[in-house]
Structure formats: structure tokens, C-alpha cells
Write a structure and sequence with these properties.
The chain crosses the membrane at residues 38-58. This protein has helices at residues 8-29, 39-72. The protein has 87 residues and is mainly α.
């Protein structure tokens, strides 16, 4: 049993933040030279990809739950079984 749902948008957003932090950490240690404006395209692209992944995941979860709900209602309702009085 899963404890929580998989949220791919949060994973992608976190990876973008970690990539930006790693790039600036490498710049701070002198390993390589990173321009000051590098965070803007990395974070913007990461957040845009996270938004797309979140939307796709949301649509898939809704479709899956709608398909499960439509397959559960195949039995006859309890009132037509004859065990209850009808008014």
C-alpha cells in the first residue's frame, strides 16, 4: 500500500532547485565560472516542466478514478432486489 501519491511536478521542481544550487556551489568553490543570470533560465524551465508534469499527472489520476468509478456500478441497486418495501 502506498503512503502517498507520486507527484512528478514536485520532483522536477526540486531537481531544478538542486541543479541551480549545485551550479552556484561549484562557482563559489572555484570549480567553474557561472554567470549570475544562470538561475533565471534554469529555474524558469524547471518550473515550466514541473507545471506540465503536474497537469499530466492530475489528468491521469482523474481519468483513472473515473474509470474505476464507472466499473464499480455494474450491480443492481439494493431497492430492486425485492428485500425492501417500496412506497
Amino acid at each position: 500500500m502506498l503512503r502517498h501519491e507520486f507527484r512528478p511536478g514536485r520532483l522536477i521542481a526540486g531537481a531544478a532547485v538542486l541543479a541551480t544550487a549545485a551550479a552556484y556551489l561549484g562557482d563559489a568553490t572555484g570549480a567553474w565560472r557561472i554567470p549570475w543570470f544562470t538561475a533565471l533560465p534554469v529555474m524558469s524551465g524547471g518550473l515550466a516542466l514541473a507545471a506540465v508534469a503536474t497537469f499530466v499527472g492530475y489528468r491521469l489520476r482523474r481519468r483513472r478514478s473515473a474509470m474505476a468509478a464507472s466499473s464499480e456500478n455494474t450491480a443492481a441497486p439494493a431497492s430492486t432486489s425485492g428485500s425492501q418495501a417500496t412506497r
